[in-house]
Write a structure and sequence with these properties.
The protein is of the alpha/beta class. 36% of the residues lie in helices and 14% in strands. The chain has a 6-stranded parallel β-sheet with strand order 5-2-1-6-7-8, sandwiched between helices. Strands 9-10-11 form a 3-stranded antiparallel β-sheet, covered by helices on one side. A two-stranded antiparallel ribbon has the order 3-4. Helix 1 (20-30) crosses helix 6. Pfam families: CoA_transf_3 (PF02515).
C-alpha cells in the first residue's frame, strides 16, 4: 500500500500528541504518507498511559499500548527524540528539511524556545506545510491558555444545547460521549493541510496553518449557531429532540427505545399511515414540519402513545418497508456485530511485534482504486527510531548506534 497509496509521496513530521493532531496524521498515514511520530524518550505520547484498558500492559521500561493510543496512531513510525537537547533539536531540523508537512499542538510559543517553530524550520524548508493545533489559536486574548476538549465543548456553546431540557430531573449541561472537539479540529486541520499542499503545487511555497479547537467547534454548531444568529435567541437543551425537525427524537417502545428521524412531510404521512394514525397527517396542525414544530408539545405525546404499543424490532421492520427513517439504539457490542458495519469493513485487525492482534476501527473513506486503511499497526514507543534515521536522513548504523547509546531522558516541562 505504501508505494501506491494516494499520499505515498509525502512525508509528515508529527510533533503532536493526544488526539486532535494524531487524528489528522492517522488519516494521512492511512492514505500512504510516511508519518514520523516524534515522542519523548521513555514516555511517549501522553495517551500511551491513558488506561486501562491496555492491549499491552505498561512495564517499568515500556509504557505499553493503551486502547486510547491505538485509536489514533495507526500507520505511523515512532521515533524517540529529546527536543530539549541540542542534539534532539538538530535531528528535528534535519527531519523537517526532508518532510512536506509538520503537525504540532504545543502551546503558543512552546516550540520557539527550542528553535523549532515555523519561522525557524521554514528556513531549512520553505516548502513546508506547518499545521499548528491549539485550544484558542495563535492570536486573541486566550491564545496562551491551555485548551482541552471538555473545556472547549463548554466554552463553544456545545454543552448548552446538549443534555436534558432545563427543569427535567437530572438536567444539566452535558458533554458529547467522545472528544468531539478534538476530532473536529483534527479533521478541519487535515482539510487545511491537503488544501495547502494543492496550493503549494501551484506556487511552490509552504504555508502556516493556525487551527483552534474553539474556532472549529463553533463552526460545526451549524444550524444551531445559525438559529441564534437569525433569531437572536440562544437555543437551549432539548434532550434528544431536534430544534428544526419534528418528530426527530427517541421514543420508548414496548421493549426498549428507538429513533424516529422524520425529515419531511411525506415521511410523516407514511409513518402515520403505517401506524394507523392517518388523521394526524391530515390535521392542519401537524401536516407540515412548521406546524409540527409549533405544535410539538401536543403532537409528541400522541406519537409516544402509539409507538409504545409495539417493540423496537417490529417498528423498525415495519417502517423500513415504507421508507420511514428509524432505527434501534445500539451499544458498541451491537454496533460491531451489525451486518452493515461488518460488510463495510469497519473492524480491522492488525499485527506487530508488540502484539499479534491489534483491533482497529477502519478508515470510513472508501476508494474504488484501493485500500484506505494502513496495514501498519500503531507503533511501540521508539520502534522505528533507527529505521527513520536510516531511511530519511541517510545515517549510517554506527552513527545511529552512538546516538541511541547517548540518548537522554527529556527535561520535564
Amino acid at each position: 500500500m505504501q508505494t501506491t497509496a494516494p499520499l505515498s509521496h509525502l512525508r509528515v513530521l508529527d510533533l503532536s500528541r493526544v488526539l486532535a493532531g494524531p487524528w489528522a496524521t492517522q488519516f494521512l498515514a492511512d492514505m500512504g504518507a510516511y508519518v514520523i511520530k516524534v515522542e519523548k524518550p521513555g514516555e511517549g505520547d501522553d495517551t500511551r498511559g491513558w488506561g486501562p484498558p491496555y492491549l499491552v500492559e505498561p512495564e517499568a521500561d515500556n509504557p505499553g499500548l493503551s486502547a486510547y493510543y491505538l485509536a489514533c496512531n495507526r500507520g505511523k513510525r515512532s521515533i524517540e527524540i529529546d527536543m530539549a537537547t541540542p542534539e534532539g533539536q538538530a535531528l528535528i531540523r534535519r527531519l523537517a528539511a526532508e518532510c512536506d508537512v509538520v503537525v504540532e499542538n504545543y502551546k503558543v510559543g512552546g516550540l520557539a524556545k527550542y528553535g523549532l517553530d515555523y519561522d525557524d524550520l521554514k528556513q531549512v524548508n520553505p516548502r513546508l506545510i506547518w499545521c499548528s493545533i491549539t485550544g484558542f489559536g495563535q492570536t486573541g486574548p486566550y491564545a496562551k491558555r491551555a485548551g482541552y476538549d471538555f473545556l472547549i465543548q463548554a466554552m463553544s456553546g456545545l454543552m448548552s444545547i446538549t443534555g436534558k431540557p432545563a427543569g427535567e430531573p437530572g438536567a444539566e449541561p452535558m458533554k458529547v460521549g467522545v472528544a468531539i472537539s478534538d476530532q473536529i479540529c483534527g479533521l478541519y486541520g487535515l482539510s487545511a493541510i491537503l488544501t495547502a499542499l494543492i496550493q503549494r503545487d501551484r506556487t511552490g511555497q509552504g504555508e502556516r496553518i493556525d487551527m483552534a479547537l474553539l474556532d472549529t467547534q463553533i463552526a460545526t454548531l451549524a444550524n444551531q449557531a445559525s438559529n441564534y444568529l437569525v433569531s437572536g435567541q440562544p437555543p437551549g437543551r432539548m434532550g434528544n429532540a431536534h430544534p428544526n425537525v419534528v418528530p426527530y427524537q427517541v421514543f420508548k417502545t414496548a421493549d426498549g427505545h428507538m429513533i424516529l428521524a422524520i425529515g419531511n412531510d411525506g415521511q410523516f404521512a407514511r409513518f402515520c399511515a403505517v401506524a394507523g394514525a392517518g388523521h394526524l397527517a391530515a390535521d392542519p396542525l401537524y401536516r407540515t414540519n412548521s406546524g409540527r414544530i409549533v405544535n410539538r408539545a401536543a403532537l409528541i405525546p400522541l406519537l409516544a402513545e402509539i409507538i409504545a404499543g409495539r417493540g423496537t424490532a417490529e417498528w423498525v421492520a415495519l417502517l423500513e418497508n415504507h421508507a420511514v427513517p428509524c432505527g434501534p439504539i445500539n451499544d458498541l457490542a451491537q454496533v460491531f456485530a451489525d451486518p452493515q458495519v461488518q460488510a463495510r469493513g469497519l473492524r480491522r485487525t492488525l499485527s506487530s511485534a508488540a502484539a499479534p492482534a491489534i483491533p482497529q476501527v477502519g478508515n470510513p473513506v472508501k476508494f474504488a482504486s484501493g485500500p484506505t486503511t494502513s496495514d501498519r499497526a500503531p507503533p511501540a514507543l521508539g520502534a522505528d527510531t533507527a529505521t527513520v534515521l536510516r531511511e530519511v536522513l541517510g545515517m549510517a548504523d554506527p552513527e545511529i548506534a552512538a546516538l541511541l547509546r547517548h540518548r537522554q531522558r527529556p527535561a520535564q516541562e
